[in-house]
Amino acid sequence: MSRHDEIKNAYKSLGGEATFYDGMITCSTLLGKAVCKLVWNMNKRKNDRYLELALSGIPQDFSGKMLEIPVGTGILTMPVYKTLPDADVTCLDYSADMMERAKRQAEKREIKNVCFMQGDVGKLPFSDGSFDLVLSLNGFHAFPDKEAAYREVFRVLKPGGRFCGCFYVKGENKRTDWFVEKIYTAKGYFTPPYETAHSLEIRLKAMYRKAEVKTVEGMAAFRCRKDGSDGK
Ligand SMILES: C[S@@+](CC[C@H](N)C(=O)[O-])C[C@H]1O[C@@H](n2cnc3c(N)ncnc32)[C@H](O)[C@@H]1O
């Protein structure tokens, strides 16, 4: 089975168990809190902190074209889109099962400005310079071809476009690194190689301007901007 298929299968099973996945990613259920503490050394406050940092790259009154990759179950972002009625949002993911839940979240909240597409971040079906903002929460540690993903995000951003999000970085917490290597990577949820906070900062600063990286335990939150057409 190819690495792409392994990942699809790994996340397929999570689509049906979204209460566990959603509880874990939001650090809100008893089991989710236990996983956050054990694997990530995070309580709810720290979990909320890294998500806040990741989402802080979206201007409050954002009204342009935005791409979210990967949307997963939408548990983290549908509440955000409810507050951005003038944004034109495209959500993309490999996994139809995860995305089915995101669609239901959007319907439940009567969010009208979001569309969903199944696809591969390594081959985005959009022309160059299509988006004002790309958001990626917890994706880059999962993507099988990270170089292609970085390239594609840059390509589809307009000059002056923003890129923000978060993902796991190694070297911040030994216990997290152990779990990522022995369990998350082995099960196909995460795919090496992994960035460190330092390597991520160097990468983003080489591609974008005003790149900022902040960590909360083993999670790095980042935001950066592509140069404008006038070089600003
Ligand atoms: C950990 S989940 C994150 C989902 C969501 N952003 C969140 O934070 O809850 C990782 C997601 O990446 C998706 N994924 C993995 N490789 C992908 C690829 N090459 N293209 C698109 N989505 C991919 C999986 O299907 C899964 O839904």
Would you summarize the structure shown here?
Helix content is 43%, strand content 21%. By secondary structure, the protein is an alpha/beta fold. The radius of gyration is 17 Å and the shape is globular.
What does this structure look like?
The protein is 43% helix and 21% strand. With 232 residues, the chain is of the alpha/beta class. The chain has a single domain (3-225), classed as Vaccinia Virus protein VP39 (Rossmann fold). Helix 2 crosses helix 3. The protein starts with a helix and ends in a 7-residue tail after the last strand. S-adenosylmethionine is lined by residues 7, 11, 25, 70-72, 75-76, 93-95, 98, 120-122, 137-139, 142-144.
CATH superfamily: Vaccinia Virus protein VP39
Bound molecules: S-adenosylmethionine
CATH architecture: 3-Layer(aba) Sandwich
Order of strands, main sheet, comes to 3-2-1-4-5-7-6
Distance between the termini: 45 Å
Q: What string, H for helix and E for strand, traces the elements in order?
A: HHHHEHEHEEHEHHEE
Major beta-sheet overview? 7 strands, mixed
Mean pLDDT: 92
Q: What do we call the CATH topology?
A: Rossmann fold
| Tally of distinct domains | 1
